[in-house]
Amino acid sequence: MSHSIQHYSELADLILELQMAMQSAHVWEIDEPSIEALASEQPFCIDTMTFEQWLRYVLIERFKIMIEHQEPLPNRCHISPMVEEAFRGLEPAKVKDLILITDAIDRFLSRLVATQ
To answer: Residue 27, Cα to own-chain centre: how many angstroms?
Structure first.
């Protein structure tokens, strides 16, 4: 089932919130991964890049493409446990913001599946 323009707009807002939270936590300004690193087949490209690189250059960029082309959205992403683990050394309030936003993205995607 295709998603409405409103669904893509909601996801775009959530992705923008994630970007702002990453900027606030000082994990946005990172080196762009190489083409080879992006070709990784491992979950989160764990073998070729940092988690923050994966969030910025893989997850966010894929969502932007899906939104722009109104492609089918995933059923869920459930990345907040990885966010909690990867950013354990950051200020707790910043990590909490990142977890809340990634949880909101997962709830949003799960809700879309439930309404189909």
So the answer is: 13
